[in-house]
Design goal:
Elements lengths: L1 E4 L2 E8 L2 E11 L6 H10 L12 E10 L2 E10 L9 H5 L4 E7 L3 H5 L1 H8 L7 E6 L11 H10 L6 E2 L8 H19 L1
Parallel strand pairs: 3-5, 3-6, 6-7, 7-8
Antiparallel strand pairs: 1-2, 2-3, 4-5
Amino acid sequence: MVLAANDAYLSDYKVANKRIYSVKVVILGDGGVGKTCLMYRLKHQKFLEDSRMTIGVEFHTIQVERDDRQFNFQVWDLGGQDQFFFMHKAYLKGASGIIYAFDLTRTKTLYGLTKWFNLAKDLGPLPSVLAATKLDLADFHAIPQEAIQEKVGKLGFDKYFKISSKTGENIQSMWGDFADKIIESTSNGC
């Protein structure tokens, strides 16, 4: 059975009395903010030492179990460089949630979030989370806290997560918060 919620498609089936959902999630942000390393950390619980520019899109599946339900999150990492921007609308189709990411060491990536929000606005309101990456590079953080708080408010978030894919700091709390939002919206829509 396919369920539609906010133009997002969730496949839903049952195996051995367990309801299984496939949920598409996209990670959006400028090139080099750490989307690939974040996705790798989520999937493998370790840091990807040698990441390369994502050409187009890559994805991994991450399983989360809640009660009698299993959620297979298909996490799509979209290349953030401008030359790939033209193909992003097609890759967003069917998304049930969005992780927006910016790099604490590069101010322009914070302001680049507006471009990503505008790209995704046609999807309607979706569960989303804001990740400030590269927490481990504290000596190189370039964005004043006031600028971050102002942007967070303008984008409509009540909070954001400072994370490090290298050390794993705050990754699980960010992912748990995000997964719970999607599971809640899936439960409400079913």
